[in-house]
Design a protein that fits this description.
28 helices; 764 residues
């Protein structure tokens, strides 16, 4: 007897096992996985690098909240940018027990999500009375949805929980949630826990769908138990959502600047990334069927607005038929008062209600835009609700197919079903999206991997590499030909090197912005002070392929270490030895402490830093303020950008710093050539200080706007700072062109300088 019970239970497992095998075989053949190197990422372009970085941290450290080898000389606090749900990360962590290569780890996770989606959709379809053979067909189609392929660079948008949300909502609306047994109810509530620990988009859409079912149940059923069940489900989801994001919220409160970098969304983006019904019904690109190719070309020929990631919401032909069925039922049968309606159509009514609610929420100009205005703009890409619509469309169609074919013999159903499934997969599964990305990514990954390994072999263990250009994170833009987040590729293929990018914390962000405001010569000195051993210049970010920057860095002491077609790596060790010979160690240590303190951009540069970031100048040489001049090497705060022939002071104070290389004794004369910003009755007065002492005052008027300002600097002031000249221009009454009615420029200007020259004065 026990044997017979076990045999019956085993037979129940055959269909879901067959379901998983079909999905696996289709993926293997469709992607031609035998030709892939699983140790290289399927994709290394764009946002997928978030996930590769996380997988790398998990395989290397065990978890991903703090990544030790990023954001050097700090660590990267990834809780500041929660770009993955904790349950998905837990799956990756389990896989990492046996898979240690991060690229392979993420590749396998990507493939596993298809099987999970197929399994959950099969369970829901079977649980709602659809026989196994039909359930297999439609669960395979959901698992292999266009969305799953199109969005494989956003692996946080997993779909395996979606069928369970729809299944539970369906039971709530039909009032049958009590009829399914305690075990199935536990499965649904387990999905609520998983949803709470999922990425915020899936969580939000799930709560919306269940809320709609709660409202319908509350209105339709005398027994309010069903509405209460939906309410409990939402409470469970929200509770675990709080658990999911609470660590990030705590970190945001501790680091508000990092929160500002993450929180840059606006309500208007609900229009930009909203759902379009046209996309739901549009066939996939590169379709094999010529008439559909013609339709695709016709659609592409029209310059529609806001064409972006929302094109990934396509359903495929079968999904589109299901969606049209829902629209048809909603328009026709729901108005058939008192008339007999076929049972399969009646069964689709809850799905019609939920689908229409989803469309009303997500379509451009829909309810979602009001939510973004009145509540929060964080949910901006409403097109991402399309997998919910896809499953509901397949669910509705499955009821109809189940009823139409229930009297078919297996000899008829199986050949027709296999043919139908095969054609549907060919129609909707864009395998080429993955294969094309993989080939392109392999061409990028292999040279980066080789370069990183070579650089690592030449630097000491744990050496720090500074990456240029510096770009804000996590909303990183494409810069020229450098796609966002490709700076992460070096970390992916290294073992011990520490990398400067990305930076999110206040201290790291301020430090990086300060470093990147410096002239290359001072940038080299500053990076050495911070302990960096090399500079990684990604040529793709520069119009001139970084030639000018690399030349300046080399002129400043950095030496070539290694390179590829796209990346140049410069060694800082020689420059480091020269710097340590020129400056006392205490000066370097104190400057390093200031750089890492979070004060750059907030407080003035300390004396130690000023000594490191001041250029030498010989008596008789000039500082030129024109475009292409050398003034960048000597300026502190309070200056405009370089104009064609001059540069203006901005605000009440402007600073110039110079170290005289050949001053032995005696006074010096400083000659400034420039003009005051004067207009009609507005005159300009300035005071010049050298090393905190007054050395001259000048007044500019409309009658006398241009002057040669000559001041004498006593020898004692120069010796006071051991050859350093800290020249400060204090402006009495700076004023903006806007205030004078000249133009809309709001900068408060004082004087405009063309040149400064330091000349020998009297001998001591």
């Amino acid at each position: 007897m026990e044997y017979m019970i076990i045999e019956v239970k085993m037979k129940k497992l055959y269909p879901p096992i067959a379901n998983g095998l079909i999905i696996s075989i289709v993926l293997f053949l469709g992607l031609d996985l035998s030709t892939y190197d699983l140790n290289l990422p399927f994709n290394i372009i764009g946002d997928i690098n978030h996930h590769l970085t996380m997988a790398k941290a998990i395989s290397e450290q065990g978890w991903w909240w703090t990544i030790e080898r990023l954001s050097a000389p700090f660590e990267l606090d990834m809780l500041l940018a929660p770009l993955f749900g904790q349950f998905d990360v837990a799956i990756i962590w389990v896989l990492s027990i046996i898979i240690h290569n991060p690229a392979k780890l993420l590749n396998v996770f990507f493939l596993v999500t298809f099987i999970l989606s197929g399994t959950s959709s099969f369970w829901v379809l079977r649980e709602n009375g659809i026989r196994d053979s039909v359930a297999i067909i439609f669960s395979v189609l959901f698992a292999l949805s266009p969305f799953a392929f199109y969005r494989f660079n956003h692996l946080m948008l997993t779909t395996y929980t979606i069928p369970l949300v729809i299944g539970f909502s369906y039971r709530i609306i039909t009032g049958t949630v009590q009829d399914i047994g305690a075990r199935r109810i536990k499965v649904y509530f387990a999905s609520a826990i998983i949803l709470g620990l999922n990425y915020i988009y899936t969580t939000f859409f799930a709560c919306f769908i269940v809320s709609v079912s709660l409202l319908i149940a509350f209105v339709r059923h005398v027994n309010k138990h069903h509405a209460w069940m939906a309410g409990k489900y939402i409470i469970v989801v929200l509770f675990f959502c709080v658990v999911n994001y609470l660590p990030s919220v705590v970190h945001w409160k501790q680091d508000p600047i990092a929160k500002e970098m993450v929180d840059i969304k606006s309500a208007v983006e609900s229009e930009t990334f909203g759902l379009k019904i046209r996309h739901l019904l549009t066939p996939i690109g590169n379709h094999k069927f010529p008439p559909i190719q013609h339709i695709e070309r016709k659609i592409k020929s029209v310059p529609f607005l806001y064409e972006n990631e929302n094109h990934t919401s396509r359903l495929g032909t079968v999904g589109s038929l299901g969606f049209l069925l829902i629209i048809f039922v909603s328009l026709v049968y729901l108005s058939q008062n008192g008339k007999t309606i076929p049972l399969p159509i009646i069964k689709t009514f809850p799905l019609c209600a939920l689908t229409l609610a989803a469309v009303l929420l997500a379509t451009i100009g829909g309810l979602g835009s009001l939510f973004n205005i009145l509540v929060s703009p964080d949910i901006r890409a409403y097109n991402r609700i399309s997998p919910f619509i896809h499953f509901m469309s397949l669910f509705a169609l499955a009821f109809v197919v189940h009823d139409l074919t229930k009297k078919w013999s297996n000899l008829i159903f199986y050949p027709v079903g296999i043919l139908f499934l095969g054609l549907a997969i060919i129609d909707q599964a864009p395998f080429d999206v993955v294969t094309v990305k993989y080939e392109l990514s392999r061409k990028i990954a292999v040279p980066v991997k080789q370069l990183t390994e070579e650089v690592e072999s030449r630097l000491s263990e744990g050496a720090m590499v500074y990456q240029l250009p510096y770009l804000d994170y996590p909303h990183t833009p494409k810069v020229h030909n450098l796609v966002s987040h490709q700076h992460m590729n070096g970390y992916l293929f290294s073992k011990t090197l520490k990398w400067s990018w990305p930076a999110m914390s206040t201290n790291a962000t301020r430090m990086n912005r300060f470093v990147n405001s410096l002239d290359p010569k001072f940038m080299v000195r500053t990076l050495i002070t911070l302990g960096f051993d090399a500079i990684w210049v990604d040529r793709r970010a520069y119009v001139d392929r970084g030639d000018s920057l690399i030349r300046k860095l080399q002129n400043s002491g950095a030496t070539p270490l290694s390179s590829s077609d796209e990346i140049m790596v410069l060694d800082l060790n020689e420059a480091k030895m020269k710097l340590e010979e020129s400056f006392p160690s205490n000066v370097i240590l104190l400057f390093r402490k200031w750089l890492k303190s979070g004060k750059p951009g907030q407080t003035s540069l300390p004396e130690e830093g000023r000594k490191l970031l001041t250029e030498t100048l010989a008596l008789g040489e000039m500082i030129f303020f024109k475009a292409g001049g050398n003034s960048n090497l000597y300026l502190g705060k309070g200056w405009s950008t370089q104009g064609p022939d001059s540069r203006s002071t901005v605000g009440k104070q402007a600073e110039i710093y110079v170290i005289l290389s050949n001053h032995n004794k005696g006074d010096i004369n400083i000659v400034l050539n420039g003009e005051g910003f004067v207009f009609q009755q507005h005159k300009q007065s300035i005071e010049i200080k050298v090393n905190d002492e007054d050395v001259g005052k000048f007044v500019f008027t409309v009658e006398n706007p241009v002057q040669e300002m000559r001041v004498n600097v006593p020898e004692r002031l120069i010796q006071k700072e051991k050859g350093m000249i800290a020249l400060t221009i204090n402006v009495a009454n700076p004023i903006s062109p806007q205030e004078l009615g000249i133009n809309t420029d709001t900068r408060k200007l004082g004087v405009r300088l063309h040149t400064i020259q330091f000349l020998p004065g009297s001998k001591g």
